[in-house]
Design brief:
Layout lengths: L7 H12 L6 E2 L1 H8 L3 H14 L2 E3 L6 E3 L1 H13 L1 H17 L2 E8 L2 E8 L14 E3 L4 H7 L4 H9 L14 H14 L2 E4 L6 E9 L5 E10 L5 H22 L5
Antiparallel strand pairs: 1-3, 2-3, 4-5, 4-9, 5-6, 7-8, 8-9
Helix pairs in contact: 1-3, 2-3, 5-9
């Protein structure tokens, strides 16, 4: 890309929008300025412009800014034209109906797991995940399923730039242990989250490949430990999961 055509104010406005998340859905202009290490007056002008365009709104009492439905509309445009989403969801719906557990479709976004879509389980107790939510890759089956298929230098880059936080006693935080986990994941063709992200929640995931063979996404099935027992996982979940992932990959042109 030729930097001569880059408009810095547009780049900074995009960075402001990316600050918002489900964990932190609102900010004051001062908080955004500190987070992005930008001049407060510049941030204020950009926020006013984004508010004028209808992308953010300011709470009259707290003075905090939050996103508006306009970003949701734009996100839906992406989802509606996404070949991955369109090809995957019919198969995921069938898979979820068989497993009766919550099923997810995710991609990597800056080495983080981004939930693109989900199919709710049929049981009263199901997952509390949300579409659009971002999770660390190292403690989720979805993340490990995709990371395991990166080249060795890509895995090293991920490890060097990741702060491993222990979310549960089972979270893998040692770099060498994590490399071994990715090796096992690659060899068996699926990833396992043994209560590493949430206590008492087990997740199994498999990669989705495109026509080049690259693992561009992953699908998973998750449920509480008292339902995700070993026999069910080995005889029902894993075979159906791998079949669903293979079917989606074929739809995307994979013939390996």
């Amino acid at each position: 890309m030729d930097d001569r055509y880059v408009i810095n104010s547009v780049v900074r406005a995009a960075q402001i929008l990316e600050c918002f998340s489900t964990d932190t859905p609102s900010y004051t202009n001062n908080e955004i300025a500190k987070k992005l290490e930008l001049n407060k007056s510049s941030v204020t002008r950009l926020l006013c412009s984004l508010e004028k365009a209808g992308f953010v709104e300011r709470h009259p009492k707290t003075k905090e800014y939050s996103l508006t439905y306009r970003l949701y509309q734009i996100g839906n445009v992406y989802i509606s034209q996404s070949t991955l989403h369109n090809q995957a969801m019919p198969i995921l719906n069938k898979f979820a109906k068989r497993s009766k557990e919550t099923v997810h479709l995710a991609v990597l976004n800056d080495f983080h797991v981004f939930y693109l879509d989900k199919v709710e389980g049929q049981y009263p107790i199901s997952m509390l995940s949300r579409i659009g939510k971002i999770f660390p890759s190292y403690c989720t089956a979805l993340g490990k399923a995709m990371l395991a298929h990166l080249p060795s230098d890509g895995i090293e880059d991920y490890i060097q730039n990741t702060e491993f936080i222990r979310y549960t006693p089972n979270t893998i935080c040692d770099a060498e242990d994590f490399k071994e986990e990715l090796k096992r994941t690659f060899e068996r063709g699926y990833a396992v989250d043994e209560y590493e992200n949430e206590p008492d929640v087990k997740c199994i995931a498999a990669p989705i490949r495109d026509k080049t063979g690259e693992a561009i996404a992953a699908i998973s099935v998750s449920g509480p430990s008292f339902r995700m027992v070993r026999e069910k996982i080995e005889t029902e979940i894993i075979p159906d999961l791998l079949e669903a992932a293979a079917q989606i990959s074929v739809r995307l042109g994979y013939v390996g």
